[in-house]
Amino acid sequence: MSTAERQLDATGKQRDHEIRCMQRRVLLETLANELPSGTIRYSSKVVSIEESSHLKLVHLADGSILKAKVLIGCDGVNSAVAKWLGFRKPAFVGRSAIRGCVYYDHGHSFEPKFFQFFGEGVRFGFMPCDDKTIDWFFTFSSSSKNEEMEDSPDKMKQFVLGKLGIIPDNVRAVIEKTELDNFILSPLRFRPPWEILRGNISKNNVCVAGDAFHPMTPDLGQGGCSALEDGIVLARCLGEALRDNQSMKSEEEYKRIEMGLQRYAKERRWRAFKLISTAYMVGYIQQSNGKALTFLRDRVLASFLAGNLLKMASFDCGKLSAS
Questions:
Q1: Residue 45 has pLDDT above 80, yes or no
Q2: Global pTM value
């Protein structure tokens, strides 16, 4: 099997947009460092949620209980809060991804752009984060191979190298130089977009955000960005709802919180629907190994796909404050 590189050139308004890659670890650490010490409780898995008047009691795996006036579920793909709101477990799309990060002590020679290669039912891509670090991914149609590789980074590495086919040596070296500790395998899941349209994004003083709200395949590279969008819109909606609340009674505060979360859900529903749908469509077309779709992808849809990738990233969620 040979693997071919395809140039995804966007046209029109998206043509001059740049793409930047940031490691999730760096993003999380940057956000966490802005919070007061002790704000975050790590390794605190939510096991159940209980109602107590206008409060929500959040039961954690260690036996402790948190009392919350507002409960915002940012607890990932397998969200306990999303389940409480009535969402079903995200669906498996039939593909899995092996991802990693490689560090070059003396720097790499790649340009700061997105590289992508296609093969028979597989896709490999990478992008420099800076002059010494590269993030990469390899997606493939899942099989029994998953179970064999799940706890073996060495098998993951050999599997990827065996599927890359004929590619430049410096590209193959991206995988070869990756330390085994930096390999991770995960099945790709998404929330069917019609569930976003019909489901409860918020209920009373509870809502979801990020992967708990709109888990999607990683084909747009917008998982972290869309979660930040959620945070800005949610903060704005709650801030406006609770403005001038010094003399507010408990009942009125509860109602205002509910209204703020409803406004957030309304503002984010269609954006989440489009993100999930576009990510699934882009991934399905790009990874297809059927002759017809492969021809369309390589000869007809390249600019369309590139345009959609950048169009979904080019989104203005407004300012944090409405004032």
A1: yes
A2: 0.87
